[in-house]
Amino acid sequence: MLKDFETKKREDKAQITAEIKELQNKLLGQQQLLMKEKLPMIVLIEGWAAAGKGSLIKELISELDPRFYHVVSPKVLPEAEERYPFLYPYMSAIPVNGKVTFMDSGWMENVVRKYLRHEINKDEYRKRIRQVNEFERQLRDSGYIILKIFLHIAKTEQYERLYELAENPGTEWRVDREDLWQHKEYKRFMEAYDDFMDKTGDTLGWHILDGNRRKTAIRDALKLLVQRVERGIQEGRFEGVSLEEDFPLREMPVLSKVDLSPSMEDDEYKKELKTLQSRLSELHNIIYRKKIPVVLCYEGWDAAGKGGNIRRLTYALDPRGFDVHPTASPLPHEFNRHYLWRFWTRLPRTGHIAIYDRTWYGRVMVERLEGFCSEKEWQRAYHEINEFERMLTDWGAVVLKFWIHIDQDVQLERFTDRQNTPEKQWKITDEDWRNREKWDEYEIAVNEMLQKTSTKNAPWHIIESNDKKYARIKTLRIIVKALEKACDKHFQRMME
After folding, report:
1. Which residues lie below 8 Å from residue 184, measured CB to CB, with a gap of 6+?
2. Domains in the chain, ordered, with CATH?
């Protein structure tokens, strides 16, 4: 790739300028079509320091309507964002349908620099390559048009540009130690960039442009952009296919075979609740100090007791160290992005706990049954969700998923109680009754979900909740045991 790249011969400047103007005007018209067809687009501009990435983006957007694009520079990350999974700033920045996001450096620069700095080892490097491929494929499969450009310049050219910037008092701030280090290690960086592009080019190919010729690079980038938009509009939304991968799964029972008779006496419940909450409070302090993120997912039947279960959990926690995210129907700005976006943007920082009252599994339950997504989309989601959760556990998160389970008779009793008790009536809606009529359909969907997504790293736990006291204690036991295991594992790694 970069090693074999040949610098282009000089072309007539007037001709190139004319081509640039024509392409910019064409791109403006295409922007209107992207909005009309509700097609989102990401343009990733990677390349060498001083290659002209910022200037290139400036030319790409010069004739566009600024209301419908956004330029981000994720390379400059706030310290807080370093406490999230490494793809967090890029997923957070994806545009809504019909808009374009231009990224001045991104996941390539992030991975390569950290690897060459020895901030991540070879195993972590391979994991991040896999995560990048999954990230790009998931976006493409959900309809995103993606263009990846690398702006290449020779080492001598880079030196001249860095020297010119450093000598000018008005631009010297643009040259930092990282840029000088990259120039010094030019050969190592070139090999690393080549390796990264080789390993992440199968799903969405890379385009290397000659940054030694500024106007030529602008013209060629505009050509690529116009062609990519044109193809995206002609093809419409890409319909991804379901993928098969050997995720290690835990065997799960079908819901109809689960014994819902377990119960607990009041005295035993109160005693164990106090013990577990006390231990959980201790563990919360430890995971904060050790910077272990925790993701707790609650799904279950309406009136199964998710809210009461969560309240007993949060009572033991420091309110500054957790967030509860109740998940309702997506808002317009959420619906018009990848369905996982609204969960990515609610992930906990390291050392914090995120509790989801309903989750991304809506994709394979309510969205599946109510027709809010196509069959291809919800079939594909099992694999995408397993990838997402593997990314979380690779990051170091504890991921636990609870299905709060009751039978139909108990649900009817609780619905009736809510309907007849004024202070509880807000808990029952017409939608709850409609969902009850689809119990059998939901049970089929839930069984398939449990079978396909209870991975060894992010398992499902079926919580028998005909007796709410028993359900709360069982859930707290599982959480305490998982956090103790995570803290022990962290200590063992520190001792190695």
Report:
1. none
2. 13-235 (3.40.50.300), 255-495 (3.40.50.300)
